[in-house]
Amino acid sequence: MITGKPKTRPRLLAIDLDGTLIDRSLVIEEPVKGAIAAARRIGVEVVIVTGRMYRAAKPFARELDLHGPIVCYQGAAIYLLDGDKRIGHTPLAQPVATALVEKAKRDGIHPQLYFDDELYVEAINKYTKIYTDVAQVEAIVVPSLIGELQRGRQSTKFVAVLEREDADAYTAEVKAFIGDRAYVTRSNPEFVEAVDPSVSKGTALRFVAAYLGIPLEETMAIGDAWNDVPMLALAGFGVAMGSAPPEVTVEADAVVGDAAHYGVAEAIERFVLE
């Protein structure tokens, strides 16, 4: 199912990771690797744009032999793969992170914070495992997340992990609670995430395009989830995966197959290589 076509060949390809570049198998399939390599051979810049931590996203970038920018934490942190240099960082304000953790604990929801590209929790439980199984990282257990914040540490992102059937309602509840003090979104069905309100995958795409000297109208973005909407809306051409919910596909210029059917390869072959 494909509609629309870019006005010009994209020079920058921004690709979401989970649900787009990979599915729950955490494998980049060979047709997708081949399509990305073909795009790079004709001079297209490829950038992963993800909600993941840097250390959880870097192995996939290395597998694709990428060396330039990579967007992590919904755009709250941007790194250069060569040299592991962080070139952009906008952490949550300490009072906001504190309020979100306090609310989650009052609600009986599992909260997580991220300091210096490490995952911090107060307990290892089924919800920690939901996250670490996807991210392939270990969690650091501390007596109090709020205690870490009170020490002056800056958290790049807040995540609440809960049952997927409860996540829609809890997302709305967190948005109403925190207002414009944070950007609240979702990257996976079980995660409710919050970052500083000044950042998103859209602002990150703008930053990376300027960094690489490529006009936004010559960018193409591919994504599948709610957190991809700002990126799909801002890109010169936005492509939604077939698995995306309706509120995501409505923002896209085209829809391709899901990750299991190599949707990224389909998008590149139709909109970049042809």
List keywords for this structure.
alpha/beta, six-stranded mixed beta sheet, Rossmann fold, Hypothetical Protein, Haloacid Dehalogenase-like Hydrolase, Chain: A, domain 2, five-stranded parallel beta sheet, 274 residues, 21% strand
N-C termini distance: 17 Å
How many domains, in number, for the residues? 2
Biggest sheet, spatial arrangement of strands = 8-7-6-9-11-10
Structural class: alpha/beta
CATH architecture of the largest domain: 3-Layer(aba) Sandwich
**Spans of at least 5 consecutive residues with low confidence:** none
Which fold name corresponds to the CATH topology of the largest domain?
Rossmann fold
Summarize model confidence as the mean pLDDT.
96
* Record field, number of beta strands: 14
Radius of gyration: 18 Å
Share of helical residues:
25-40%
CATH C-level category of the largest domain? Alpha Beta
State which percent range the strand residues make up.
15-25%
Short description:
The protein has 274 residues and is of the alpha/beta class.
What does this protein structure show overall?
- The chain is an alpha/beta fold and 274 residues long.
- The protein has two domains: 12-90 and 199-273, Rossmann fold; 94-195, Hypothetical Protein, Haloacid Dehalogenase-like Hydrolase, Chain: A, domain 2, CATH 3.30.1240.
- 36% of the residues lie in helices and 21% in strands.
- The protein has helices at residues 30-41, 54-63, 94-106, 126-135, 145-150, 164-178, 201-212, 229-234, 246-249, 263-273; strands spanning 12-15, 45-48, 69-72, 77-80, 85-89, 110-115, 118-121, 139-141, 158-161, 183-185, 191-195, 219-223, 237-240, 254-255.
- The strands form three sheets. Strands 8-7-6-9-11-10 form a six-stranded mixed β-sheet, with helices on both faces. Strands 2-1-12-13-14 form a five-stranded parallel β-sheet, with helices on both faces. Strands 3-4-5 form a three-stranded antiparallel β-sheet, sandwiched between helices.
- α1 packs parallel to α10 (263-273).
- The two termini are 17 Å apart.
- The mean pLDDT is 96.
